[in-house]
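Course assignment 3, question 2. Fill in each field.
Student: A.L.
Task: Predict the tertiary structure for the chain below.
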Amino acid sequence: MKYILFNKPYGVLSQFTDNSDNPRPTLKDYIPIPQVYPVGRLDLDSEGLLLLTDNGQLKNRLAHPKFAHPRTYQVQVERIPDEVALNKLRHGITIKNYRTRKAKIHLLPSEPNLPPRIPPIRDRKSVPTCWLEMTLTEGKNRQVRRMTAAIGFPTLRLVRISLGDNNQQINLTGLLPGQWRELTVHETEMLFNFK
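Answer field:
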C-alpha cells in the first residue's frame, strides 16, 4: 500500500487528468506514482496538504463525514472579523441549506510562515486583511470559502496545513509547494488510528 503526502500548489487540480478545453496542471504533473488517488479534494484555488493512497478502504473511511476527522486550514480573509463574527463560525452557520458543524477558529496574531503564493493574491491597500486558523471536522465543497463569505469576510488565500488533532497530526513540515513524500511508518499508523 502507498500513502503519499503532497503540498498542492495554487492552480493545480486535485485529480490526475483534465479533459477541459484549456488543460490545467494536475497531480500527474507532480506525482509519478500510478494508482494512487486523493483522499478528499482541495479546490483549484486552494493550497496545501493533500493525502493520496491506493488503499480504497482507508480512503473511504478518511473521507466519510461520519468519522469527523479534523482538518486545519490557515485562511487569509478580507478585513478583520470580530469575535461576534468568529463565534457564528464556531457554533455553525447555514450555507446553501446546510448547517455546518461546530469549528475551532481563532485569529492568528501575525501572518503565518507560508511560502509565497504564485501568483500572489490581489492586494488592495485600502482594505486590511488578516489570517484565521480554522479546524473543521467536515469537508463540504468550498466550505471554508462559503463560511467566511457568509459572515462578510471573503477568503483570499486558503492553505490546508494538517490532518488530525494535536495528539495525532500529519502536517506539511518540510514540504514546499509541489513537493511530495511517502508517509513515515509512524504517520501511516496515525492514519489508521484516527478516530
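Instructor remarks: The chain has one domain: 3-193. Residues 31 and 71 are 22 Å apart (CA to CA).
Grade: pending
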